[in-house]
Amino acid sequence: MITFKQIDALYWIAELGSFEAAANKLNMSQSAISKRIQELEETFDVEIFDRSKRNARLTEKGAELLDYAKDLLERRDYLLERVSAREVLVRRFRLGVTELTALTWLPALVEALRQAYPKVQIEPSVELSSELFRKLESDQLDLVIVPDVHSDARFVTTPLQSVENAWMCAPGLIAEADPVSLEVLANCTVLTQGAQSGTGLIYERWLAAHNVQLPKTLTSHNLLVQVGLTLSGIGVSYLPKACLSHLIERGALRALVTSPGLPRVRYAALYRSDRQFGLNRNVAQLALQCCDFSRLLL
Question: Is the pTM of this model over 0.90?
Fold first, then answer.
């Protein structure tokens, strides 16, 4: 009789390309995962993987079996999500977010996830958008929340809230009254996030579309550092307006009115389209409910 442990082994070997990688994924020894495949081969009396190749390459019958295995795994997940109590679901969930989400509404999402799935082990990762996307591609993360700059059929995208950013500086840094032209900003030192950041990439493209070149820039991949440098009068920067409203109201920062104004940055929850399990879909919906960039937690 076949077991889900054997099917899991087949799926992850085929997905990750080697017995070793699948063993690491499933937290088991390579010999144990090999034994599960041998058991499957004995059950069906077929060879599932071509042993003459260096990589784990499926035979024709192995590929056919994998198609059925994927369907069984999805039905198993559906059973756990829809029929069983959510409390029985034990799984680690690898969640990737950018710094802005971590500093605003991540605690609300984690709390909602714990309420819905008390047994799920949440493994958060806070990194730049490009790194989160790379890890999602390589199956090192289950779901990421990033600026929506990726249009890729390999991923399921759930649009979330958009963030209003504004050019900001320390009071007195720019003497001109509002509205301030982009040409005036270009003559200042501009603090940017760089193309490794989703927001940085969006605004690099936007500036290029408006033929604005920034000869003097300082790049920081850390949002809090960017805020600190702006407060210190080092330069002008684009920063999230709502969650920094308390600094604007206190007069520590000046939010510039520019012509044209910065476009809003839409965030999205992404997971791989070949991982359309119930937990991924439900976490994306929880993210939609919890998403709130208006308040900085510090």
Answer: no
